[in-house]
Write a structure and sequence with these properties.
- The chain has a single domain, classed as Alpha-Beta Plaits (2-Layer Sandwich), CATH 3.30.70.
- The chain has a 4-stranded antiparallel β-sheet, sandwiched between helices.
- The protein is globular and about 55 Å long.
- The chain contains 7 helices and 4 strands, in the order αβαββααβααα.
- The longest helix is centred in the middle third of the chain and has 22 residues, at 74-95.
- The chain is α+β, with helices and mostly antiparallel strands.
- It starts with 5 loop residues before the first helix and ends in a 5-residue tail after the last helix.
- A hairpin with a 3-residue loop joins strand 2 and strand 3 (61-67).
Length: 200
C-alpha cells in the first residue's frame, strides 16, 4: 500500500482544478470577459507567487494546473480569485453592450439567492474538486496536460490545441501565450525521475 506523503495532502502541492460558472452560463464568449481571467491569472502569478503550469478557458469553465506559494493555501487562492474575477466580470457586464446582459445577471442573482449568499450575484460554482498531481507520475501528468489542452479541439473550436489563444497549449509548443505560465519540461522531468529510480 502506497504511503501518503505530506506533499499529497499539502495545500501547496500541484493541483488540477476546474472553476465552473453557475448554471454553466456561457460568459466567456466575448473577449472582454476572457481578458478578465487572463489579467487575474497574471496578477496572481506576479503578486501572489502563484505558479500556473497550464490553463484553458472555455465558454463556461476554467481548467488550471497550478501550485500555490508556501504560506498561501489553495483554498485562499480559489476564494480570492473567484471574488476578484466575479467583481470584474460584473463590472464588464454593466459596461458592455451585450444582448445577454439581463439574462446573465438574472442567472447569477438566482444562484446567489438559492445558495443564501450575502452577495447579490454568484458567478462561480462553489465546488472545484482540486485533484493532486504527482510529478513523480509523468504519464498521469501528461494525461492532465493533454486533457486540459484538448478541450477546444473536442469542442471543434480549433483543429490543433496550440491554435487556441486562451490556453497554454501554445506555450508548450514554444510560443509565448497570454498568461505567464511555467511550462513543465516533461523530458527533463522523466530523465530526472529515471536517474533517481522513480519514473512512473
Amino acid at each position: 500500500m502506497k504511503q501518503e506523503t505530506n506533499s499529497e495532502t499539502s495545500q501547496h502541492a500541484c493541483h488540477y482544478i476546474t472553476f465552473n460558472t453557475v448554471d454553466w452560463v456561457d460568459i466567456f464568449i466575448k473577449p472582454v470577459y476572457k481578458y478578465v481571467i487572463v489579467d487575474a491569472l497574471n496578477e496572481f502569478i506576479g503578486r501572489r507567487g502563484l505558479t500556473v503550469n497550464a490553463w484553458c478557458l472555455m465558454t463556461n469553465h476554467l481548467h488550471l494546473l497550478l501550485q500555490a506559494k508556501d504560506g498561501t493555501g489553495l483554498a485562499m487562492i480559489e476564494r480570492d480569485f473567484k471574488r476578484i474575477t466575479s467583481t470584474h466580470i460584473l463590472e464588464a457586464i454593466e459596461l458592455e453592450t451585450d444582448l445577454r446582459r439581463q439574462w446573465m445577471l438574472e442567472r447569477f442573482e438566482h444562484s446567489s439567492q438559492s445558495l443564501k449568499k450575502l452577495e447579490k450575484y454568484q458567478v462561480w460554482q462553489s465546488c472545484s474538486n482540486p485533484e493532486f498531481v504527482d510529478f513523480r507520475e509523468p504519464m498521469k501528468l501528461r494525461e492532465h496536460l493533454n486533457y486540459l489542452h484538448d478541450n477546444p479541439v473536442r469542442d471543434r473550436i480549433v483543429r490543433m490545441p496550440e491554435d487556441y489563444v486562451f490556453s497554454s497549449a501554445g506555450d508548450y509548443q514554444g510560443r509565448r501565450g497570454l498568461v505567464n505560465v511555467k511550462v513543465i519540461d516533461m523530458e527533463a522531468l522523466i530523465r530526472g525521475l529515471i536517474r533517481n529510480g522513480g519514473a512512473g
